[in-house]
Design a protein that fits this description.
It is a single chain. By secondary structure, this protein is mainly beta. It has a single domain, classed as Sandwich (Immunoglobulin-like). Helix content is 14%, strand content 53%. The protein has one helix and eleven strands; from the N terminus they run H-E-E-E-E-E-E-E-E-E-E-E. Strands 1, 2, 3, 4, 5, 6, 7, 8, 9, 10 and 11 form an eleven-stranded mixed sheet that branches. Strand 2 and strand 3 form a beta hairpin. It starts with a helix and ends in a 10-residue tail after the last strand.
């Protein structure tokens, strides 16, 4: 009986932690959590994630690329004169202990010239290059069009 309870507890613990680990990545002191993208009917899309600097020194996200897109840029959505406007931001500063959330309606990765529209359920490779931590490849899960954000992870 005691062994059965231990096995059930261990299985539950693994089930509770496995999804988070499956979608989190680490390079140096940088942690990338739950990268995801929205399905799109056109060859332009957005990708989102949370980036944390767990180190004691600042770092910068210099660029993002994807083999599935001609171009990927870090963009910011702003409301100007009642209209949503997007513009490239350049590098993102990550102070020690900082967390930056890339999400719909805010900072995000803009994917332009996709080989084909993104489809729900597939994965999208992204390559993130940091000034100090280096380069890491992550896989973003493509969720349904209009998804509010990373809930399937």
């Amino acid at each position: 009986m005691r062994l059965a309870r231990t096995v059930i507890f261990a299985a539950g613990l693994l089930a509770a932690t496995a999804p988070a680990r499956a979608h989190d990545y680490k390079v140096g002191a940088i942690v990338i959590e739950r990268p995801w993208a929205r399905a799109t009917p056109v060859k332009v899309g957005g990708a989102y994630m949370t980036i944390r600097n767990r180190g004691t020194a600042p770092d910068r996200l210099l660029k993002v690329a994807s083999p599935a897109a001609e171009k990927a840029e870090i963009h910011e959505t702003r409301i100007e004169d009642g209209m949503a406007m997007m513009r490239a931001t350049g590098a993102l500063e990550l102070e020690p202990g900082a967390t930056i959330e890339l999400k719909p309606g805010g900072l995000h990765v803009m994917l332009m010239g996709l080989e084909r529209p993104l489809e729900e359920g597939e994965s999208l490779k992204l390559v993130l290059t940091f000034e100090k931590a280096g380069t890491i490849e992550v896989e973003a899960t493509v969720e349904k069009a209009g998804a509010p954000g990373g809930h399937n992870h």
